[in-house]
Every structure is written in C-alpha cells, then in structure tokens.
C-alpha cells in the first residue's frame, strides 16, 4: 500500500512541506541520486576554485577589505555554501539510502538551507543581468585571471544554478520572496550608507551608487530597478519550477504505470504454479495518481 499523502500544516511559510519530505532535497525527477551528487560535486569544486582565485585577485590588488561589500562576491559565497550543504546531504543519502544528515540536523538548519536555495536561484539571475547590461560597457581592465573571474561569477554561476534547479525537486514557495527581497534591501541600504559616509565607494556594484545616477533620475530608481529584476527573476523561477515538476510527475507516472502493468502474476491455467508476464488489465479508475506521486517521492 502506498504511503498516504501527508497533510501539510497550512502555514504562511510552508516550512512543513520541506521538513516532511526531505527526499526532495536529494532526489531528482530526471536522474538518480548518484548522478545528482556527481553534478553537485563538480559544481562545488568549480565554485571553490573560483572563490579562491577571486580572493587571491582582490588580495593582489589590495582590495581585500572591500571583498564582502560586493554583491557579486556575496552571491557567489552563497552559491558555494549551497553546493557545500547540497553535496553533504546528497552524499549521505547515496551512502545511507535515506536523508540521514537532513533528518538528524536541527530543523532550523534545514529551513535555512531552503531559504538559501530561494536566494541563489534569484540572485544568480539578477547578478548576470546587472553585470552584462550595465557594468560591462565601462569595464576596461583585462587579464586572464580577471576574465576567468568575471565569466565565472557572471555567467557560469547562472549555468550552475539553472542546472541545479532542473535536476532537484526542491519546491518554490511564493512567501519566501519576502526573504529574498529583505536580504537584497538590507544590502542596498548598507551600500547606500557606506557611500553616504565614505569619500570613495566601498563596493563595486555601480548601479547602487547614488552618486553615479544621471541627472533627472530619482535617487531611488536604481534600487527599484534591482528589486524589480529580483521580483521578475522569482516569477520566472516559479514558472520553471512548475514546468519542471509537471514534466517530472508525468514521466514518473508513466514509468510507474509501466512497471505495474508488467508485474508477474500467478497463472492458474497450467498445472502447478507458473509465472507469466501477461499484462495486468487496469482501467483509469483504478489509478490513484496521488499514490503514484508519493511512490515517486
């Protein structure tokens, strides 16, 4: 008998949805947990290398104190932290065949991991858009290390994020947009205060520098643009997640139905007991897609 579908507590944040279905963090609609682990491990190694080279480059330029004031760097640190936790959870699941690391860690850490997921899937759309649309035309420095840094943090980051979204089964919750916007607004406020106090900008994201705003534009417009892009990115991700889950459930339903149709049964027409591979005739009325969905999970 299939496991009954749990009744989620109807809370605004819907934390119980992920806490009651930890397997969604370490499984995929389209591949095996092992393949998901391999992909995440490759992304983690690349992220760590990129982060190390980025810090080294800032150290060589004498700008290391400014490193954490750049939204791109903060966003990439968040992405690296996400893949670090994702690899740990995936590895535990592959070895133990259950989400042991998720089930034994404090619930608050699981919730934090879920919130971090919502931030990276939005910020790593926002960061490439702002960079390629605004910052690239004014970028004059060229070096192999700098080129690797810029491409990794403003291009490859998007690729890694979108592949992760496509492969995992983590749900997107509309109310978590509040977390995404709150963190972004706090960063904008912090940079605005830094540049109001300091004689020189203490960050790299020019679009948030109120002194760089052309005449005729209101002082708040760049901030509204960034927030608007973040909201748009969240809506795009909502569509991607809906499409991913719809396709994934359809594939799993078809797969499970085929398995059920080819289950061997006892053939009583022969002497003794023989096993035949004749298909079991079933009607659509006998199919409980909720049960099938839970089996897929």
DSSP strand count: 2
Q: What gap, in angstroms, lies between the N and C termini?
A: 15 Å
Cα Rg: 24 Å
Spell the H/E element sequence: HHHHHHHHEEH
What can be said about the biggest beta sheet?
A: 2 strands, antiparallel
Percentage of residues in DSSP E strands? under 5%
How many domains make up the coordinates? 1
Unreliably modeled segments: 1-8, 266-297
Total number of helices = 9
Strand numbers in spatial order across the main sheet: 1-2
Instruction: Report helical residue fraction.
Output: 55-70%
Average pLDDT works out at 80
- Looking at the structure, what is the overall shape? globular
Given helix and strand content, the structural type is mainly alpha
Structure description:
By secondary structure, this protein is an all-alpha fold. The chain has one domain. It contains 9 helices and 2 strands. The chain has helices at 15-19, 33-61, 71-96, 100-104, 107-135, 144-167, 177-197, 221-261, 289-296; strands at residues 265-267, 274-276. It has a two-stranded antiparallel ribbon with strand order 1-2. Strand 1 and strand 2 form a beta hairpin. The longest helix has 41 residues, at 221-261. Residues 1-8 and 266-297 have low confidence and may be disordered.
